[in-house]
Amino acid sequence: MYENLWAPWRLAYIAGEGERSTAPAPPLKLLPGGDESCFACRAVADDRKRDRQNLLVARGKTTVTFLNRYPYNNGHLLVLPLAHKDRLERLTPDELLESQQTIACWVDLLESTMKAEGFNIGLNLGRAAGAGLPGHVHWHVVPRWHGDTNFMPALAGVKVIPQSLDDLWDLLHKAWGASSH
Ligand SMILES: [Zn+2]
After folding, report:
1. Model's pTM, two decimal places?
2. Pick from 78, 132, 68: which is nearest to 102 by CA?
3. Domain at 30, CATH number
4. CA neighbor of 121 nearest in space, from 135, 132, 107, 137
5. What span, in angstroms and rounded, lies between the C-alpha atoms of 12 and 88?
6. What is the CA(93)–ligand 1 centre distance, in A?
7. Catalytic hit among 138, 146, 173, 181
8. Ligand 1 center–CA 146 separation, angstroms
9. Ligand 1: distance of its center to the CA of 26 in Å?
10. Rounded distance between C-alpha atoms, residue 176 and residue 181, angstroms
């Protein structure tokens, strides 16, 4: 794996640490079945005013979208059911349908806003398959551009992510709000 070099976000993160520690968040009311050790469940239950800080970029009826805090590429999204479920067969038909429609919508929006030229879309089920959040099913949507694999990675194993997560959240949150999803 490449180490991501991403100065704008790291600076913002370091600057925001003190702020967070002086203002403890109120206890969250998790959804039924929610797991308080799961970042997705915590963000879903959190005040919408903190969606940007939580990198929660779009809320649907049964599905939610996050920016991946550790992206493989600029614009890397995670699409999840709101409910904390660890297996595909536990998803309801509505959750399955809306998650796939949400992915389709993001493909469209990432093409129009970021000029994405291709996508890797997939699901890692279980730790053995590399799931970073094994208790909560999530699809990865990774936009691709011609040449994105052979520019910086060839240099010292460092990959550059050019856009900060805050800027990306603003861009995609606005695009989602304006779309007919
Ligand atoms: Zn969860």
Report:
1. 0.80
2. 78
3. 3.30.428.10
4. 107
5. 36
6. 19
7. 138
8. 34
9. 18
10. 7
* Axis-axis angle for helices 165-178, 7-22 (nearest 10): 90
Active site residue 140: no
CA of 86 relative to ligand 1 center, distance in Å? 9
Best CA proximity match to 79, nearest among 130, 129, 117, 133: 133
Task: Tell me if 44 sits within 8 A of 31, measured CB to CB.
Answer: yes
Domain count, the chain: 1
What phi and psi, each to the nearest 5 degrees, are found at residue 114? -120, 5
Look up residue 59 and give its amino acid.
R
Q: Which residue carries 């993001």 as its tokens?
A: 106
Q: Can you tell me which residue has the tokens 């970042």? A: 39
Range of the domain at 25: 3-178
Residue 120, strand partner residues: 142
pLDDT means per 10 residues in the chain (181 residues)?
Answer: 47 44 68 92 95 96 95 92 94 97 97 95 85 88 84 51 83 94 76
